[in-house]
Amino acid sequence: MLLRRQLRPDNGTAALSRYGDDVWRLDQGIFEENAKSITVNFTSLPSPWRDTAKRYLWVLINAEPPAQLRRMRPARLSLQGIRMLWFPLRKFFQWLHAHRVTSLSAVSPDLLDGYLAFLTGSGDPLTQVYSCIGEVRRLWGYRMVLPEAMRLPETPPWDGDCTGVLLGKVRPSAENRTPRIDEHTMQPLLLWALRFVEEFADDIITAQHERVCCTIR
């Protein structure tokens, strides 16, 4: 299944996930030692949508992004990134199944408007709604590398309107979400930073120079 991903050397071939498995282990291609078990469980989807989900995720894992997406996202998604998009993707497929839609080619603009209304009325955090909308757009971006029955219609979702326009609000930037460091914490940090520069720097540089010389010898 991880056909074009580098695999950890401690993985035996017998333990590798296969395309036909109900659960894919993505951590077999993740090299961070502290990485948790990362899996995608396709049984959490209605059975009519499992094949579409498998084909799409296989493309995300193994194929290069289409040209139109490379201009925005030049590299393939990481395996951790693919696992993170599973929740919004699954949510879309489950919603389609609940509305008796059996293929992506049958998704109409009216259905997408209905899904947008569902998202905006769900009470979910704005960042989560943004993510759900973004995954529909990504799915559309890959349409030409998927089989015809698994392609969203040619017209871009929501006529290409940006998410901020669709929702009437903009997702807060990461800078605005970062808590400000308290002044009582910042002042000691600055004092110690200055002390390192003004008092300790010469000794640190000298010790580093001696360490390098000893290493060379």
Report a brief summary of the structure.
By secondary structure, the chain is an all-alpha fold. The chain is built from 8 helices and 2 strands. The protein has 2 domains: about 15-175, no CATH class; about 180-215, no CATH class.
SSE series: EEHHHHHHHH
The major sheet is characterized as: 2 strands, antiparallel
Query: Please, how many helices?
Result: 8
Oligomer: single chain
Instruction: For the largest sheet, list the strands in their spatial order.
Output: 1-2
> How many domains?
2
SS-derived structural category = mainly alpha
Q: Radius of gyration in whole Å, from Cα?
A: 24 Å
From the spread of the alpha carbons, the general shape counts as: extended
The percent of residues in helical segments reads 40-55%
Low-pLDDT runs of 5+ residues are none
What's the number of extended β-strand segments? Answer: 2
What is the mean predicted local confidence, pLDDT? 82
Distance between the termini: 49 Å
Strand content: under 5%
Describe this structure in words.
The structure is a single chain. This protein has 217 residues and is mainly alpha-helical. It folds into 2 domains: 13-174, no CATH class; 179-217, no CATH class. Helices cover 50% and strands 3% of the residues. The protein contains 8 helices and 2 strands; from the N terminus they run ββαααααααα. The protein has helices at 50-62, 67-70, 79-98, 109-120, 126-141, 163-167, 174-177, 183-216; strands at residues 23-25, 39-41. It has a two-stranded antiparallel sheet with strand order 1-2. Helix 3 (79-98) packs across helix 5. The longest helix is centred in the last third of the chain and has 34 residues, at 183-216. It is extended, with a radius of gyration of 24 Å. It starts with 22 loop residues before the first strand and ends with a helix. The mean pLDDT is 82.
